[in-house]
Design brief:
- Helices cover about 0% and strands about 50% of the residues.
- By secondary structure, it is mainly β.
Length: about 200
Amino acid sequence: TPTTAERGAATLVFGMPDDSEWYTDVVRAGGGDWARKVDSNDRTYFKTTLELEAADSFWTRTEPEAFEIGRSSDNPTLLPKLARQRVSSASVFGEQEIENIGDTYAWGVFTVKGPATAILAIGPNGETVHWVGNLTAGQTLTIDMRANTVKDQSGTNRYNGLQPAPKFWPIAPGTSQVTVQVDDTTAESLATVQWWPRKWAVV
């Protein structure tokens, strides 16, 4: 189902037998011709063929995989369980075994709800993104690994809080382990990690 404005790029979505939906952004590369009274009843329909091109070879699932880490005991993880979780009076820490069901790399989005003063995200190969700053209760910080951006709840750039030589990292297909640590937390603090699997497909 293409969705678009009258001109410009469109998002093409298809459904899988398991009811999941996957999308890719496309542009019209050709086609669209039709003849009146041949390809149309001149009132309610016309038929044509469109050629579409996508810059990305992979389709992205609309629903993400995710997990949460928080100090409150009733904050469930969204995956089956945390592999290991340690909680102190000042920080939350989680080492999570995750699965990327896609055919290629996926990119995580880390969202932390304050209070917090530091966020450490370590990738499967030891890549590190370390942010230091001040998040008060109700404020959030979002680290987008693909876009290489760090923004707060108002969209303000907080990239300057990153410690030297940050390395934004992807999640490879298959099973891997990531680590998340958030310092100076309270029961209100919560870290959410999301990633969107990507697959190659011919439709």
